Amino acid sequence: MVISEKNVPLWEKTTFRIGGLADTLLYPESAEELAELMKKKQDFFILGGGSNILVADKGIRGTTISLARGFAELKIEKQEDGSIKIFSGAGTSLTQTSSTMMKNSIAGLEFAYGIPGTVGGALIMNAGALGGEMQDVVESVTFVTLAGEIKTLNKKECGFSYRSSAFPKGCVIAGAVLQLKAGDKKKIHEKMKQNYMNRKSKQPLELPSAGSIFKNPEGDFAGRLIEAAGLKGSTHGGAKISEKHANFIVNRGGAKATDVICLIEKIEETVNKKFGITLRREIKLAGAF
């Protein structure tokens, strides 16, 4: 049964802590229910873990679909050849999944610890950090098409590349099978700890953000370009370009979506003017801007 809520404050459901109300928020509990919703061909927005998105101050009109409740399953199956398959719902927290693997002495997902958001969102953008990314551990991905069809692709068919994938436009990830392996719990925990400390030393984890704003240009780093353009520490309203990592915009308190957009556009214009480089956004916009 699909659960429905009205006038839901989305700032509570995003890592940026920014955004207006969702007119209607639906929680399907299975791929079949999700498929039935998509067959209705209504305009809708899919809300995952709330990271990597900026929700408009006016919120999202119409229907928003959340996978947080019905797609949070996590199942571990050990195979005869010694490998381990993980059946993960798209709404499962990536960090919590990584932690669960550690507790069960399963290696391969250490890189994901500390990455905000869900498994579904991580698959769409082939999320990664510190030398690892989702395509390294994926066996197959199940999704629902715009026409309401449930399909499954193997890793090669997913078309993974740097912070990108080739899933059909408008489809919604329902879940995935991950291929991992047994490991030493203490070593896995130590690697996760080192990865997190490294992330904490370089990224502004103490303030709300949506993660990296821009994709890294080939052969360079967006953060370096933004800093070289003299924009590190720039502010607009409650939003600020982080002084710790210039590819992060943080909510220092009371930031509006319009504040963030102003800084994003300032970065794009300045970097293009100074270096002739067009930065590509990693962050997604939701709602009317």
Task: Please give a structural write-up.
This protein is an alpha+beta fold and 289 residues long. Helices cover 24% and strands 28% of the residues. The chain has helices spanning 31-39, 94-103, 119-124, 185-202, 222-228, 257-275; strands spanning 3-9, 21-27, 44-47, 53-55, 60-66, 74-78, 83-89, 106-107, 128-129, 132-133, 138-144, 150-154, 172-182, 235-236, 239-241, 249-251, 284-286. The strands form 5 sheets. Strands 6, 7, 8, 11, 12 and 13 form a 6-stranded antiparallel β-sheet that branches. 40% of the residues are buried. The model has no long low-confidence stretch (mean pLDDT 94).
Strand residue percentage: 25-35%
Estimate the global geometry from the Cα principal axes.
globular
Secondary-structure content class: alpha+beta
End-to-end C-alpha gap: 33 Å
The helix tally amounts to 6
Brief summary of the model shown:
With 289 residues, the protein is an alpha+beta fold.
Describe the protein's topology.
Blueprint: E1 3-9, E2 21-27, H1 31-39, E3 44-47, E4 53-55, E5 60-66, E6 74-78, E7 83-89, H2 94-103, E8 106-107, H3 119-124, E9 128-129, E10 132-133, E11 138-144, E12 150-154, E13 172-182, H4 185-202, H5 222-228, E14 235-236, E15 239-241, E16 249-251, H6 257-275, E17 284-286
Parallel strand pairs: 2-5, 3-5, 4-17
Antiparallel strand pairs: 1-2, 6-7, 7-13, 8-13, 9-10, 11-12, 11-13, 14-15, 15-16
